[in-house]
Amino acid sequence: MKKALTLVLLAAVVFGALGCAAKPKEVTLTIESWRNDDLAIWTDQIIPAFQKKNPGIKVVFQPAAPAEYNGVLNSKLEGGTAGDLITARPFDASLKLFEKGYLADLTSLKGMENFGAVAKSAWVTDDGSKVFAVPMASVIHGFFYNKDIFDALKLKVPETKAEFMAVLAAIKKDGKYVPIAMGTSDLWEAATMGFQNIGPNNWKGEEGRKALIAGTGKYTDPAYVQTWKDLAAWKPYLPSGFESVKYPDAQQLFTMGKAAIYPTGSWEISQFEKDSSFKLGVFMPPVAKKGDTVYISDHTDIALGMNAKTKHPAEATKFLEWMTTPEFAELYANALPGFFPLSNGAVTLKDPLAQEFLSWRGKAQSTIRNSYQILSRGEPNLENELWRVSAAVINGKLTPEKAAAEIQAGLDKWYKPAK
């Protein structure tokens, strides 16, 4: 009896030890990010979906304040304390991290073939040979409009520039509403919501953008001068005292139903749907004439890379590979309406406005803001200069031709295209 009890106890110890040995050790991955407003989305939706299929991997989302992120991240990377996965800003800031050896090369990552050249453009080396982050989302430029106002004034959504100007004139003639809710006080709106929104239809998207980088195109070319001419034509239709109107003022003017049209992008969806009591609609940037190819700014915004010194490369790779799947794309896009997946696979969005924006990819050619890749590395900074001159053109302080000449002269001071 005693011997039998001993054998039973021994077996229990052995099987218990085997059970403990068989239980996999849980690994924790930490994600560094500046999107502190996304914390609940990651912890409540995205991470649980991954962990359901990968129970041995725990993921922690660790955001910093947006304005502090670059400095905090650089300090952590230099000190060897950064997380395993690094949320990557587009273009130069992340490229520098890769060149310093802080971000791993993800060129051969399984699933990277699901992303096209435009999608990867913000996280590749200048020669396009190395990719160092998985593209997560872009934002699409366009125009919001108040459907109730359009219905009341019997206006049709404009497709051409002539139709757009006719709509503005009709709204102004009615006198009850501001035609375009935008100001120039903060400067950047004139470039981001104006110049980069309508310009791709003039410079033919990627064709024009790449020509600027190659040096075969210049900002003094007719396409750019025309874009500033188009912007200058908005002046009579902006709010009274628009020179002092800031970004939040213009948002409020639109959401309160006092303005008919708001030039901007998909990033406004959540706030506009929350704050507006009227029916919202969106339309693409107008073209010169019916039948012309439409070009939209489908601007690369956010990606995720791997810390080159992570202690858990296999697990981090598994997470990044999951991010290339349709499951992640649909989950992320529905959690953040207006931030669209960059993978080639089709996704279905629950938000009607977000789905409308996304449908434009099937009707238009995508490009990105033409100042972001390579061309804003020197001084004077091209991006900031575009803010300045675009606002000055709308304000009537610079002619379109003068704006073009100033921009190109500034670029010529430091930028020499690769031969």
Write up what this structure looks like.
The chain has 419 residues and is of the alpha/beta class. The chain folds into two domains: 23-137 and 301-355, D-Maltodextrin-Binding Protein, domain 2, CATH 3.40.190.10; 140-298 and 369-412, D-Maltodextrin-Binding Protein, domain 2, CATH 3.40.190. The chain is built from 18 helices and nine strands. The chain has helices at residues 2-22, 39-53, 69-79, 92-99, 117-120, 147-152, 161-174, 188-198, 200-203, 206-214, 222-232, 247-255, 269-275, 313-323, 326-335, 352-359, 382-395, 400-412, and strands spanning 27-33, 57-63, 85-88, 134-146, 178-180, 259-265, 280-283, 295-306, 365-367. Strands 1, 2, 3, 4, 5, 6, 7, 8 and 9 form a nine-stranded mixed beta sheet that branches. Strand 1, helix 2 (39-53) and strand 2 form a beta-alpha-beta unit. Helix 8 (188-198) packs across helix 11 and helix 17 runs antiparallel to helix 18. Mean pLDDT is 93; it is low at 4-22.
Question: How would you sum up this structure in a few lines?
Answer:
With 419 residues, this protein is an alpha/beta fold.
Write out key terms for the chains shown.
single chain, 419 residues, alpha/beta, D-Maltodextrin-Binding Protein, domain 2
What is the fourth-level CATH superfamily of the largest domain?
Answer: Periplasmic binding protein-like II
Multimerization status: single chain
Poorly predicted ranges (pLDDT <50, ≥5 residues)?
4-22
The coarse silhouette is: globular
Mean pLDDT metric = 93
Given the helix and strand composition, which structural class is it?
alpha/beta
Distance between the termini: 90 Å
Please estimate the helix content: 40-55%
Characterize the largest beta sheet: strand count, sense, and whether it forms a barrel: 9 strands, mixed
CATH architecture of the largest domain: 3-Layer(aba) Sandwich
Order of helices and strands: HEHEHEHHEHHEHHHHHEHEEHHHEHH
